[in-house]
Amino acid sequence: MTKQDSSTTIIDIAKRANVTDITVSRAFNHPEMVKKETRDKILAIAQELNYVPNLFARNLKNKNSRIIGVVTDSTFNPFYIVLIQTVSRLAKEKGYQVIIFDSDSDEKAEKTAIETLVSYKASGILLSPVRDDKDYQPSYLSLIDQHNVPLVFVDRSIYGYQNKYSGLLLKTLKLAL
Questions:
Q1: What is the pTM of this model?
Q2: What is the pLDDT of residues 75-102, one digit of tens each?
Q3: 3-class secondary structure per residue, the chain
Q4: Per-residue pLDDT, 59
């Protein structure tokens, strides 16, 4: 078995299979559009080269990562442990992955987590803000709105903020908080 470095791309697979990179992409994303023999050859080469699809590249194209972010102020809190387990189970059933951030009650860490999730084109974010007083109006709220990211508050909320997309995330996960 040949091992390839982590930079193996669909172009490398296409060259080995003597097909176009579009055919390789279809073999992974729309297998019904590729002849069985060709698809089997592509998948065998991909396995031989230890190919792992670049989800970030796919996210850029699809504008959605199928990632749900959970940002809490402490992953050791029993409430959040149950929440994370439940969300992870529901997300997995729907074909989503969960990324967990622990802000440790630090506003800067919370902001970095939100910015990271927006940059990953997260499908939604569950957030327990570090503060819930009237003066806490974090700058990342405009980023969330600008990118139309569903945001659902857990345990606490940000005074006066409404996210018009939060219902999409709740509906997707069939989650009632």
A1: 0.69
A2: 888 888 888 999 999 889 888 899 999 9
A3: CCCCCCCCCHHHHHHHHCCCHHHHHHHHHCHHHCCHHHHHHHHHHHHHCCCCCCHHHHHHHHCCCCEEEEEECCCCCHHHHHHHHHHHHHHHHCCCEEEEEECCCCHHHHHHHHHHHHHCCCCEEEECCCCCCCCCCCCHHHHHHHCCCCEEECCCCCCCCCCCCHHHHHHHHCCCC
A4: 56
